[in-house]
Amino acid sequence: MNGDDSHWLDVGSIADVPVRGARVVKLPIGCVAVFRTATDEVFAIADRCPHKGGPLSQGIVHGKAVTCPLHNWVISLETGEAQGADKGQVQTIPVKLEDGVVWLCVDGAGNLANGAPTGRAARGCSLGKSLDRDHPIP
Ligand code: FES
C-alpha cells in the first residue's frame, strides 16, 4: 500500500452487498461505493459520478462497470474512467475480499490511503463498518 500509515479497514461482509449492486461506506473524507459484480468480484470507487456527481452506488452494475442512474454515463469499476465518448474519472480505492469480508485500504486517520479527495463533503460521515444504502446524496 501507499506508505507506512496505510492499513485495511473491515467494512463488512460481501453478503451485505447485493449482487450487481453496491453499498455505501462512510469515511471521514467522503462516501465510497463498494460494488459486487455478478461473479462476486468487489470494487470500490468514490460514490460520485465524474459527470455531475450522481450516486454511482445506485447505478446498475454490468460486467466490471456501472451505469450512473442520472444520465447513463458508464464508469469502469476497475479504472474509474468514463467509457465511450464521455470524459472523466472517479477515484478508485484499493479493495480486497478475504473469507467473505470486504476490506478497504485507508490511512491511519481513516482517509483513503492514496490521499486523493473524493470531492464530497465529509459532514455526517463516520468511520466504521457503516454499510448504508440510504446515505443522503447532496
Ligand atoms: S451525473 Fe452521472 S451521468 Fe450525469
Describe the structure.
This protein is mainly beta. The protein has one domain: Rieske Iron-sulfur Protein (3-layer Sandwich), CATH 2.102.10. 0% of the residues lie in helices and 36% in strands. The chain has no helices and 10 strands. A hairpin with a 2-residue loop joins β2 and β3. The C terminus is likely disordered. FE2/S2 (inorganic) cluster (FES) binds next to loops.
Layout of secondary structure:
Elements: E1 6-13, E2 21-27, E3 30-36, E4 42-46, E5 60-62, E6 65-67, E7 74-76, E8 92-93, E9 95-98, E10 101-107
Antiparallel strand pairs: 1-10, 2-3, 3-4, 4-8, 5-6, 6-7, 9-10
The structure holds FE2/S2 (inorganic) cluster.
Residues 49, 51-54, 68, 70-71, 73 line the site of FE2/S2 (inorganic) cluster (FES).
Percentage of residues in helical conformation: under 10%
Oligomer class: single chain
Estimate the strand proportion.
Answer: 35-45%
Query: Could you name the ranges where pLDDT drops below 50 across 5 or more consecutive residues?
Result: 115-138
Counted beta strands: 10
Number of domains: 1
The N- and C-terminal alpha carbons lie at a distance of 31 Å
The average pLDDT value, as a whole number, equals 80
Q: At the fourth CATH level, what is the homologous superfamily? A: Rieske [2Fe-2S] iron-sulphur domain
Shape: globular
Order of helices and strands: EEEEEEEEEE
Q: Main sheet?
A: 4 strands, antiparallel
Rg from Cα = 14 Å
Q: Which cofactor or ligand species appear?
A: FE2/S2 (inorganic) cluster
CATH names the topology as Rieske Iron-sulfur Protein
Q: List the strand order in the largest sheet.
A: 2-3-4-8
What is the name of the CATH architecture?
Answer: 3-layer Sandwich
Query: Given the structure, what is the number of helices?
Result: 0
CATH class: Mainly Beta
| Helix-strand category | mainly beta
